[in-house]
Amino acid sequence: MELMHGPTLTDHSADKRKAPSSDYWKWREDYSRRKAPDSEMYKTLLKERQIDADVEQSWPQIFQNAVLYFNGRTGEYSAIHLANLVRLCGGQSAALLAKRRVTHVICVNLSASKTGQIQTSGLKSKIHYVRPDWILDSILKRRRQSEFSYTVIQKALGNTAITDYFKNSKSTRTISPQGFDEKAPKKAKLISR
């Protein structure tokens, strides 16, 4: 037998039907829903990461009614594997960010322009923008964790005035011509020699 380069087992030949060009994304989501992820493989991966020993009993259905969209990088975790874990735990993953359908966006960080769009459009209240750790911690604790601890978007832009950036937090240090002073002098005196 001759050794082959690359992976020897793939799922690319599982369904050779061509996707209809009219509604490719719907076809892709239907196809991924029909194709169940390998439960045993993910149990092994979770054991290697020492995530949960009780996963062998059954996958906790903690992501029921949750539709997740993976936006860009997901840190050290593969978005494909995270999506499969979500599916094993009762959730769905979306190929497109459909604002009426998606409940959670999984990402490590967002660009400033995306953050601004989200905060001005009011989508932050409808869609949870969370880090990938939210998925793994929820599986570890066998209970869906609060999104607040894992949120990517912290503060709305409209709540901060420009003067807030220049206020001293707890320190009373000020800048004077002589340098930093703990308390500002009432009057700076010029000493002549």
Describe the structure.
The protein is an alpha/beta fold. The chain has a domain of 135 residues: BRCT domain (Rossmann fold, 3-Layer(aba) Sandwich), CATH 3.40.50.10190. Helices cover 25% and strands 10% of the residues. The protein has a 4-stranded parallel β-sheet, with helices on one face. A two-stranded antiparallel sheet has the order 5-6. Strand 1, helix 3 and strand 2 form a beta-alpha-beta unit. The protein is globular, with a radius of gyration of 25 Å. About 3% of the residues have low confidence.
List strands and helices in order, with pairings.
Blueprint: H1 24-34, H2 39-48, E1 67-70, H3 79-88, E2 92-94, E3 104-106, H4 112-121, E4 128-130, H5 133-140, E5 174-176, E6 179-181
Parallel strand pairs: 1-2, 1-3, 3-4
Antiparallel strand pairs: 5-6
Fraction in beta strands:
5-15%
What is the annotated CATH architecture of one domain?
3-Layer(aba) Sandwich
Give the overall shape, derived from the CA principal axes.
globular
Beta strands, count: 6
Instruction: Give the rounded overall mean pLDDT.
Output: 72
| Helix run count | 5
N→C terminal distance: 96 Å
Structural class: alpha/beta
Helix share, percent: 25-40%
Instruction: Please describe the biggest sheet, giving its number of strands, its sense, and whether it closes into a barrel.
Output: 4 strands, parallel
Give the strand line-up of the largest sheet. 2-1-3-4
CATH class of one domain, please? Alpha Beta
SSE pattern, N- to C-terminal = HHEHEEHEHEE
Radius of gyration: 25 Å
